[in-house]
Design a protein that fits this description.
Pemi-like Protein 1, Chain: D, 2 domains, three-stranded antiparallel β-sheet, 3 strands, about 20% strand
Length: about 90
Amino acid sequence: MITAQVSDKGQITIPASVRKKLGLKPKSRVEIEIRDNVAVIRPMKSISELYGIFHEAAKGKTTDWDEIIDETMRIVAEEVAREGLD
């Protein structure tokens, strides 16, 4: 798996419509996976982005705690794998 960083100018040159759909901002990180000669690009969330998940829960916009826990665990696992933390 390959990761890349989107520059201030939106470079690895992802079209603006795709960046918008994926929620990519300058300095966002993406994950690039090659599958059968096809590159798959996924946005990577950071632990700091968990704020939004808990903020929505606190405001009563979501009460699906199983989804919140699953998303939190996935984001933390990605961050640990990326940073090589034990």
